[in-house]
Amino acid sequence: MSDTGASQGLAGASQGLAAGLCGLSAAGLPGFAWLDGGDAHDGGGMVAAWPDLEIVGEDLAVLDEVQRAWRARPDAVWIGWLSYELGAADTLGRAVTRSALPGLCMRRYPAALRLGAGAVQGQHGDASRLRAALAAVTPIGAQWPWPLQSLSVRIEPEEHRRRVRAAQTRIVAGDTYQVNLSQPMRAAWTGQAEAMTLGLRTATLYAGLRHRFPASMGGLVSTPVGTIVSNSPETLLTTTVGAGEDGGVLAQSWPIKGTRPRGASPEADAALVDALRRSEKDGAEHVMIVDLVRNDLGRLAVPGSVAAPSVAQLLTLPTVHHLITEVSATLRTDVELTELVRAMFPGGSITGAPKRSTVGIIDGLEQHRRGIYCGALVLLQPSGVTLSIAIRTGLADAHGLSLCSGGGIVVDSDPEAERLETLDKAAAFAGPGV
């Protein structure tokens, strides 16, 4: 992946096609899902509606049922989500505290459109109904008014700083090396947006979001309680059948850790990049998480096949710079879907290290549900599996958009700088001119 590969990989749809897809999302099609650049196999995306099977549950073991149904019809596409709480509960060996958003939902689509290079590149099954629906909609472009009011943080600044200090206390005690702490945010709809249907509000939001802040793992997925709106740049996992050693399954992950905001001028921007590359703190954070991902994949890999470069690359996005590294491996032939997800999810870059003890610390420090934030959007298709890490991701409902934003805390973190970093990461949702 090049320095800007993740952000450029979006190109899952040209602006013209994207406006049509935003219009399609507003139409309220049953089970609508648009993974915008989420198909990491060809850098494109996938759009689908009218699922013929939905499997819902509150335990990762439900993926066994999904795998059986996937094997029975390997030509079909599956799209769905996993909540952070589902992964945290599995990691800690306890039951999930249920909420209105199911912890696991996977939908089977007999037909789907495959997107890439600014066009519909192909399809799975007979997608004529979906093509006809796309041709009939009114396009929704970035020129539509931004539908959200300003973001408001749901906890006081001092409370977030207190939680950072509490995390550092646990680090000093030797309970963890790094803790990813988030804080909840919300933005209400504008008065103008209130006059629209919820589908139209959400479509308008995404049209503006993807135009100004394209992201390689973005997407819109309908749920029983609203629409998941994702602007994520991070891939937790992608597998490709036949691309590994000796024709095996290649697994790849791209952990992101280390952040700087974009500068106001080219000179300031370059200085921030240089500071990120030189930062011992950010470098140590990044290496720690890369090692965690190497370990997670290593539990499933053919011995000796796990690989990662020693030097992180730069990922430049419209609002921030990140450090990113590709970790790859060839999977053993006996690895099943549940085992694969259980080993990798939730991603180490949004928990900390070591994963199990750190997830428990997060449970104690955060007084809010993450929901889809730091969960995953999931794609199953004949060529393999793709899971995003649902950062820069929220849920749009009748009241507005709810989301969280977080960052990794280490022993020498500055509490106020960490708080401000969460605001930088959420800037895409703050609206034009912010």
Care to describe what's here?
- The chain is α+β, with helices and mostly antiparallel strands and 434 residues long.
- The protein is built from 13 helices and 22 strands.
- The chain has a single domain, classed as Anthranilate synthase (4-Layer Sandwich), CATH 3.60.120.
- It has helices at 5-8, 15-25, 63-72, 84-92, 128-136, 157-172, 191-194, 198-212, 266-278, 280-298, 337-344, 355-365, 415-425; strands spanning 33-39, 44-48, 53-57, 77-82, 104-109, 112-116, 119-124, 152-153, 178-188, 217-223, 226-232, 235-240, 250-253, 256-261, 313-316, 320-324, 327-330, 352-353, 376-381, 384-388, 393-397, 400-409.
- The strands form 3 sheets. Strands 1, 2, 6, 7, 8, 9, 10, 11, 18, 21 and 22 form an 11-stranded antiparallel beta sheet that branches. The protein has an 8-stranded antiparallel beta sheet with strand order 3-5-4-19-20-12-13-17.
- Helix 2 runs antiparallel to helix 8.
- The two termini are 30 Å apart.
- Residues 1-13 and 38-42 have low confidence and may be disordered.
Short structural description:
With 434 residues, the protein is α+β, with helices and mostly antiparallel strands.
